[in-house]
Design brief:
The chain is mostly beta strands and 165 residues long. It contains two helices and nine strands; from the N terminus they run βββαββββββα.
Length: 165
């Protein structure tokens, strides 16, 4: 079976940045599974996988526009230092996670000013080309259960944020 809309697909992958540094990879013997065509992976990688079959491999370069998007300057925000529990050892480049009404949000310290901290709320890979080495581990018809919309009984309690509530 070839990868097509509504198929269950599992891939082994290694993701590298422009400098060749490994940014992410699937765990050994644990490929990433998803339903093709549902936007569960970045668009550029999904498009490149279409039509592939089990055991096929590919090297895919995904442009920022088809990955995590370009850097959005509006997502740089100043936060008063008083909102940080400890600013003594704070340095640009440090990553933090904040709990929001929509679930956890990661951000990076961009600049430290006298009274404020400038944070970058863009995805850490925004503005970057993504280099994937991919092997298709499985392609099959998705089951009815896999195709059913997820049920989020936790919505509204602020604990996960995965459903956008």
């Amino acid at each position: 079976m070839k990868i097509q809309s509504e198929a269950f697909v599992a891939i082994d992958y290694t993701l590298k940045d422009d400098q060749g540094n490994v940014v992410d990879k699937s765990e050994e013997n644990s490929p990433l599974g998803f339903i093709f065509g549902r936007g569960q992976i970045i668009p550029g990688l999904e498009k490149a996988l279409e039509g592939m079959s089990k055991d096929e491999t590919a090297q895919v370069v995904v442009a920022p526009e088809d990955g995590y998007g370009p850097v959005n300057e509006e997502l740089f925000q100043e936060i008063p230092k008083a909102n940080f529990p400890n600013t003594e050892n704070l340095e640009p480049g440090q990553q933090f996670q904040a709990n929001t009404p929509h679930g956890p949000m990661r951000f990076v310290v961009h600049e430290i000013k006298e009274e404020d901290i400038v944070v970058n709320l863009n995805h850490p890979l925004a503005g970057q080309s993504l280099h994937f080495d991919v092997k298709v581990a499985e392609v099959r018809e998705a089951t009815e259960e896999e195709l059913a919309p997820p049920v989020h009984s936790h919505c509204g309690d602020g604990s996960h944020g995965c459903c956008g509530c």
